[in-house]
Amino acid sequence: MLPLTRVDHVSFATHSIDDSLRWFERIFGAREVRRMPNTAEGYTFAELEIPNSQVGFELIEPLGEDSFVARFLHDRGPGFHHITVEVESVDAAADDLRANGVEPFGGVRGSGHWRQTFIHPRDSGGILVQIVQAGK
pLDDT by residue (tens digit) across 92-121? Predict the structure, then answer.
């Protein structure tokens, strides 16, 4: 069992952060907290705050046709992409996964402020799960 600290956010893939943001603003009263490109991974993300929500929301948009977000949109269309959960130790979480017959997808990576691994959708009933250890 993974000892979760909390659910950090849910992420939605979109062709246009601006278009999706207008929908989230209109329906949920969301506001954009931060937007940043991740050029190494080929996408831009926007963090949203929704009133009275205990969970963060994120919109991700591809920067080009070669990114994982572009492939996701091509294969599945816009919508739910992943859920991110926080743990105290991503290494311990990876060990727990292995003990339960699940190999962490992509290994454990990152350093300092943000370390992460993933559970592949084939191992979780179709949902990509990002497991993070956020530095304090």
Answer: 999 999 999 999 999 998 877 789 999 999
Q: Virtual CA dihedral for 131, 62, 120, 115, nearest 10 degrees? A: -30
Bridge partners of 77, per DSSP, are none
- Average of per-residue pLDDT across 67-74: 96
Please, which pLDDT band fits residue 136 given cuts at 50, 70 and 90? Answer: low
Q: Could you give the CA distance from residue 64 to residue 68 in angstroms, rounded to a whole number?
A: 9
Of the candidates 135, 26, 20, 37, which has an alpha carbon nearest to the alpha carbon of residue 87?
135
Closest CA relative to residue 45, chosen from 29, 31, 30, 34: 34
**Domains, the chain, ranges and CATH?**
4-134 (3.10.180.10)
Provide the b/e sequence for 94-120 (b: ≥16 CB within 10 Å): bebbeeeebebbeebeeeeeebbbbbe
Q: Is 61 left (phi over 0), alpha (psi -120 to 50) or beta?
A: beta
Rounded CA separation 1/18 (Å): 38
| Contacts with 101 (C-beta within 8 Å, 6 or more apart), sequence order | none
